Sequence to fold (253 residues):
Amino acid sequence: MDASRFAASQPTIYNRLEMLGLLASATAGLVVAGYHTMAPRSQLYGRTFVGRPAGTKSIALTFDDGPNDPYTFQMLEVLAKHGAQATFFMIGQYVDHRPGIARAVVQAGHAVGNHTYTHPNLILRSRWQLQDEINRCERALSDAIGDRRSKLFRPPFGGRRPATLRAVRRAGLTPTLWSVTGWDWNADPAEKIERKVQAQIRGGDVVLFHDGSHLQFGGDRSQTVKATDSLLARYKAEGYQFQTIPDMMGPPT
Fold:
């Protein structure tokens, strides 16, 4: 290429490079935005409760996707055995199916929160659909346990956008995620669940477990029950308290 032709081509080359740079930046921005819609500790789209400062001698066990027979009852037995309290985020359609389990949870002194009515990924739902999921679950909980329900909300899969959190707060609920996950939804052996939790515990944690399955009522959570029993024994011996989310949100004791 002679000098005149090379000089004439420069604006085109520079424009293409600039466009590639803009595309790369836009792609990176979408990746980051997508990450923060699902990352449980992220506060980018609004404040959510994920626990106390590291080193706090308390742990909040939380159980999603119930109520579920027989595993919610088995979990209540384990918690009672250790004198521990926990928080259950319930799917509204399961509450309608088995309201007596929800009543047993609150009668045992545990907290109950809203986990939507059908467990959709809320980042893929319209504002109207989101509000309907929250309201229908609130109605199911109200029918089952009345005013004993806690004003807590956990989005399925942790998925949320700014509009999600605004709608949750308009409903008078506090969005609550987690800082530690047991990765128990695939029904891993209890020992594997325990190792994963132990690797993440720092104190002041909100731990995500499941006493049910969003895929079907009656999902097998026997390994989660077994892992919870072992973890309660371990961390109680180390001086940890096991609190509900409302108790953990209150002044330190």
